[in-house]
Amino acid sequence: MSVGPVGAGTEQSSGSGPEPDAAADAHVDPPSVPDAEPAPEPQPTPEPEIAATSPPPPIAAPRRDGWLREALWASGDIWLGSRIAVLLLSMAAARALSGGPANRVPGVLTLWNRWDVGLFTKVARYGYRSPHYADRTEVDFPGMPLAMRLAHLLVWNWTVAGLLVSLVAGGFAAAAIWRLSADELDGSRARFAVLSMVLFPYAVFLFAGYSEAIFLGFAAAAWVEARRGRWWLAGLLGAGAASTRVTGIPFCAALAVEYLSARRRAGLPLVARPALSLALPPVPIAAFILYMRARTGTFDFYRDAMRAGWHRGTAWPWVGWRATWNLAWDGSQSSEFVWFWRGELLAVVVGAVVTVLLLRGRRFGEATFVGGATLLMSASTYYASGIRTILVAFPLYLMLARAAGRWRWTVPAYLWIATPVMAAFVVAFSQGQWVD
């Protein structure tokens, strides 16, 4: 006798079965079985729906995975492709709009040496408060000029050095945003997060030699490491972000809030050795303040430079709103400045709405960053550079990716609205028109 399958509970003969006659004699009609409905075909398990305001995933212990190579590979084609598109668009616009002889069409270096690029170049070449120039560059943090100075060791031109810094730093920003989104969603929606960044209406400042790309690269990468519980690395990267823009001040606070939130979600003690890493991000800010104090003799150098160079001072947000609103609807001004003021008003509204949505989703660290940056840019006698503050608010892109998984119309709506505006501002900036 042989034993049947486990759990069958019957024995089977090892012979060939009963003789034919015996089988015929032993025949009985089988019992009637009522017709049964066919078993339903197995359905694929749907992916869990993640709301645009859902809380971040908990991380109980530091993760040791190397995320950068995969993220660069997954996002690099979008980033590099968009850089080529922006470059070609600026060159085509120069030829289409020059209106002069072909041999006088501005070259690439002229197209991208506009506005603050010259200010960063002056600091990179001569330092602050130099007799070589009269501009009040104290409002520009030293991270970008230092990076340009390093890049200038590799390239011959200061404008090219700024473009190179933005190219490399923006690539890291795209990779980090992809990683943050892919950790919560999937690869396709993570790619949309990157796409929403490169097509943001004011993304021209991620191409030009401005400080937005380097800040975004450091800040988003710091957030990836914070989400993985690697706080010392997050602190170092946060220090890099804080060295580049005044927006680094609310980012320092945001990292501290993210640390407290993550430790509480994981059930870990708040007072622990990783908490010391939170002292790293403010270091370059303090160093810059002390350095400028030694150069200028006052701790109010930033406020003095803002008043002297841009006629701006601190004020309650509603004071700045009222002044900017009046400028935005003053028809006697140039159209480019009228739309600039309107964009600044919209930036404050977007920052406030995103902050509320992040608080609703219990994303307290991200809400601290966006809310603090929004408050910082609105506490002025008039609004300026606020749109570029929203440009570096990476939680917005993560929120758009989550929204794309919940509402399918999010992707086409964003692409149809943002892309032409972004293209128009690329043309405007490279033609020397004021954008922000």
Describe this structure in words.
- The protein is an all-alpha fold.
- It has a domain at 67-311 and 408-430.
- 61% of the residues lie in helices and 1% in strands.
- The protein contains 19 helices and two strands.
- The protein has helices spanning 20-25, 68-97, 108-111, 116-126, 143-151, 158-184, 187-198, 204-207, 212-227, 231-242, 248-266, 282-296, 301-310, 317-328, 335-360, 364-378, 386-391, 395-406, 410-430, and strands spanning 2-3, 11-12.
- The chain has a two-stranded antiparallel sheet.
- Helix 15 packs antiparallel against helix 16.
- The longest helix has 30 residues, at 68-97.
- It is globular.
- The protein starts with a strand and ends in a 6-residue tail after the last helix.
- Residues 1-37 and 44-48 have low confidence and may be disordered.
